[in-house]
Structures are given as C-alpha cells and as structure tokens.
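From the pipeline queue, job 12 of 40. The input is one protein chain; the requested action is below.

Action: predict structure.
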Amino acid sequence: MKSGNSDLLQVENLVKHFPIRRGILVQKQVGAVHAVDGVSFDIRRGETLGLVGESGCGKSTTGRAILQLQRPTSGHVYFEGQDLTTLDAKTLRKMRRKMQMIFQDPYASLNPRLTVGETISEPLVIFKVASGKELQEWVENLLNLVGLNPAFAGRYPHEFSGGQRQRIGVARALALQPSLVICDEPISALDVSIQAQIVNLLEDLQAEFNLAYIFIAHDLSMVRHISNRIAVMYLGGIVELSERDELYHYPLHPYTQALLSAVPIPDPKAERQRRCMILEGDVPSPVNPPEGCRFRTRCPLAQDICKACRPEMRDVGSGHQVACHLV
C-alpha cells in the first residue's frame, strides 16, 4: 500500500520487540519486550498528530521506529510512497533529509564538544548542501529563524539555558528543510514559561514551511493546543484516534476517558462537579502483556469478550477510530 497524494506518512501494523537474552557463554532469547505492537495511522502534509499515553507505552519507540533509528520487527512505514522498512542503508540515508527528530532532553541531545554553529551545520556538511561563506549564512539564517542571535554560533551548549538549547535542536532539525519532524516530548524538560515559547515557535515554523509533526507528549492540554488529530496509546498499541475536539468532547475508550478526567479544569465550579475516573492496579509488564484487550486488567467495564480476543481499531464515524469491544 502506498500513501495517497495528501498523505505524507502511512504506518501499517508497526511492531517493535526488544529481545531478552540470558546466559553467560551462549546467550539465548528467553522473551521479548513488546514495546510497540500493531500501530497504524497516517499523517497528511502540514498536519500535527499528537501521540499521548503513560510513560512506557511505546510513544518514543514508535517515533524512532518510523525514522528507522530502531529497525521495526515487522510492519510497514510508507513515506512519500516508499516503504522505509525495505530500503538499504544508502537509500535510507538519502531519505533522512526529509525526516528529522527533535529530542526530549536538550541537555543530552547536543554534543558538548561542538559549537552551536558546528552542530547546526553538521547535517548541511554531511549532505553537501552548502560550504564556506554560504554555510555560515545558512547557519545564521537558521539561528534567526528560531529566535537566537547569530552571534551565538561560536558558543558551546553549556553556555545556554534549556529553552535556548531546545531552540538549537529545532534549528538543527530544520537545517535540511524536512517534510516530517518527530517531536519527542520536546517541552517536558523545560520550565512552563519556556514550554509555551517552544510550542509557539513550532506552530510558526509549521505555518511557514508546511511541516508535518508527530508531537509526542504527556501534557494533554498542550497536545490539544497544537494537534489536529490525537492518537492515544496504551501498552504498545493505539486505543483511540480522532480529531482533536472530537476526542476531548466525546472520548469513547475507557482509557481515554480516564486520562481526560485527570486533566485539571481552570474553573473551580466545573472542577467540583466533574467526576474523575480512577483506574485501579498497575500497568501490566510489556514483557508479558495480557491476552485479549490489554486494558482489560484495569478497565471497570471489562467483560468476557475482552479476554477472549484483542479488539481491532474500527471507525465509528467521522474518522473517529477506537479499539474497544464495548463501544
């Protein structure tokens, strides 16, 4: 299957398992961590897809598997009609110009031995996009684009705050003028006041360059602000996918309802009247996920059919998809 004219990316039944090996002289595989198990979605050009869920549900692994930073165990990733999972290293390297990533930790994602100018110019040098004076001008334009003084090009990462470092990471990601940027919790390590600045910057850049984002985050309020559609993940799979407002006003999956019930409302009267849905128990281990529906061990509505078979994603109208037997 290939993506249509409006679809930039199509992910089909993406699976990523990490083997568990034991042994001293001869290591044998004794199990696997089911980090991502059958994820499917698509993204249009200029669209932002929010990817939310609890820590450890597979959001970051999904992003890395899409970019082939971690090769998937199975499944397909179609980018501009090409299946990335079948490409060799040389062909895949050429495709990387169009796909970039903004990492979560701005303190760990920048090389402390390189200046800001060297960090931003590195992809331009590797792909032989510019050199000499043209390269210097390109770096200065990128720094201006993300709201930093071009004079900072000669400084090192330790001389900058967290917000400034994340802006440098954004400049590096945009250096090769990509079509798709995966934002792996780009604001979670920043102060609240800085978070809004980075999100506003991402929105401005998207409007200017028609970028498509996969925005991975925990903050449901921020995801609602920046996303066009939202996918909710639980234990390696997507349980609900819908347009932003549709999901927040009419959540169908019990897990989505529980997540949204925990979001604070800036209205004391409404906050007192609403009913919080508290989940019991802990998230099962991805090494040995439950049979059938993976949420059934914590779901207050679980029935026998939930244990018998795993629910498939189905469209219940207006592009609202949900994986639940009871909806």
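Job complete. DSSP finds eleven helices and twelve strands in the chain.
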